[in-house]
Amino acid sequence: MTLLIYLLIGAAAGFTAGLFGVGGGLTIVPILYLVFLQQGYDPSIVMHMALGTSLATIMVTSISSLSAHHKKGAVLWQVFRNLAPSLVIGAFLGAGIADLLPTHGLQLIIGLFALWVAWRMFRTAQVQIDPNSKLPSKMAQVGAGAGIGVASAIFGIGGGSLTVPYLNRHGVVMQNAVATSAACGLPIAIAGALGFMWFGVQTQPIKGAVGYVHIYAFIGISVMSFITAKLGAKVAHQLSSAMLKKCFAGLLSVVGVFFVYKGFF
């Protein structure tokens, strides 16, 4: 039964990753949190386990989603090369920061962050891209990558919640922003997952887990997400930018309300 739950989570996460370029973490984290609690794991590390496992699965969903977007020529590879090195460093450091934060603190931070991004995305859904807007310098992109990497590891996401709005704000149309975000999710996921494994080795051992990464959940979720991410990417190229933004904002709002509630209660 647990394996079936992991497969269903993977199906939803993969589709979300392809559709919004968010790596699926916003779908995976809250569900894994509830599943791990039901399995009787220590509540003090359940949130950290959900974050670490989410990042591990994003390695797979990012590859699948990236492949689909690349075939459509939507990935801005030069932007990816500018962001990737600092994304890696930031994501590993972010895992270490998350390890120091208590469960309720993590939940509240993630919830408020999701609601803030949702508000910004919904508010700008009908705003047209300024054709004169340009991406900042290479060094500015490197700095942005570091910040995105740190935040992404703390939130257990592939960075899409930050990368997509960042690129969109600087004149990149939604489809290209989503595609490039999918590419950026891979280095974030690899560095972040390794960080959660490294910083979690001192915790009480859980069968089937390495640090804060649950291997069985990782495998079950990854199998389905690899398949459904391609479907999500296909749908993304059939929707308008405004519709994508509204759907993205709706997803973030649900996740935000859930974690703000858990953070307080």
UniProtKB/TrEMBL annotation:
Pfam families: TauE
UniProt GO cellular component terms: plasma membrane
Protein keywords: Cell membrane, Membrane, Transmembrane, Transmembrane helix
Family: Belongs to the 4-toluene sulfonate uptake permease (TSUP) (TC 2.A.102) family.
Membrane spanning stretches: 7-33, 45-67, 79-98, 104-122, 142-167, 179-201, 213-231, 243-261
Native organism: Acinetobacter sedimenti
PANTHER family found in the cross-reference section: MEMBRANE TRANSPORTER PROTEIN HI_0806-RELATED
Name this protein carries in UniProt: Probable membrane transporter protein
